[in-house]
Amino acid sequence: GSDAGGHGQQDAGVSIVALVPQVRVAIERAGHQLPVVAAGGIATGDQMAAALLLGADGVVMGSAFVVTDESCAKPEFKQRILDTADGSMGTVSSAVWDHLSPAAAPFVRAGFGGRALRDSEAVRRCSHKQPEDITDEEIEWYNNGDYTTRAVWCSTSSGLLTERIGAGHLLEKTVQRAVQVLRGPAHVELA
Q1: Rounded mean pLDDT of 52-70?
Q2: How far apart are CA 83 and CA 121, in angstroms?
Q3: Are 84 and 152 in contact (CB under 8 A)?
Q4: Strands of 33-119, DSSP E
Q5: 1 alpha carbon, distance to own chain's centre
Q6: Could you write out the DSSP letters of every residue in 159-173?
Q7: By three-state DSSP, how is residue 153 classified?
Q8: Contact present, 152 and 77 (Cβ < 8 Å)
Q9: 10 pLDDT above the threshold of 60
Q10: How many Cβ atoms from other residues are within 10 Å of residue 93's Cβ?
Q11: Which residues contact 84 (CB under 8 A, 6 or more apart)?
């Protein structure tokens, strides 16, 4: 979905709220029985439960696992995500980072942008420029910068990530919360 961090087609603007049910219906209409896996902006048990209620058979949680103890992401990268107060407003989908990084050429050619923290110095300095107007000096500056300059890829749910924990604990905590949400409040009776 469009809330995913990193590279994707966020500019298409389709979140899992619309995408998952449409994919589920398309699969059924085609007479297939395939699992539907939701990805993009899922970082909590509440979001996992929502994706399952929308028709997903499972979820992918990228940003949530990037900040775990086992992740090979650099500590300063993880901390920038954990320090994000509001991922929905604190991230932006842009190709600016890709035009500053030669390694991203395949993404640029394929038409993919990337969602990352909005407060990157690269966004302030270069997002208004056309790719051909970005100078060699700016490319060198970007590629030698730290994570206040460079892209910190993360989803719109990054503001919900507040602690660095082990991946197993994250999974256990997330699934427990999803089950709790799916069971609903004890005082509600379903007919």
Answers
A1: 96
A2: 16
A3: no
A4: 37-39, 58-60, 91-94, 113-117
A5: 9
A6: GG------HHHHHHH
A7: strand
A8: yes
A9: no
A10: 22
A11: 90, 91, 117, 154, 158, 159, 161
The separation between the first and the last C-alpha atoms of the chain, rounded to the nearest angstrom, is 33
Q: How far apart are CA 55 and CA 123, in angstroms?
A: 36
Please give the Cα distance from 79 to 18 (Å, whole number).
32
pLDDT tens digit string along 133-172? Answer: 889 998 888 888 888 888 898 999 999 999 999 999 999 9
Give residue for tokens 């507040």: 162
179 pLDDT higher than 80: yes
Query: For residue 188, which phi and psi values (nearest 5 degrees)?
Result: -95, 130
Q: If we measure between CA atoms, which residue out of 112, 128, 126, 118 comes closest to residue 152?
A: 118
Which residue in 90, 101, 91, 105 sits closest to 150, CA to CA?
101
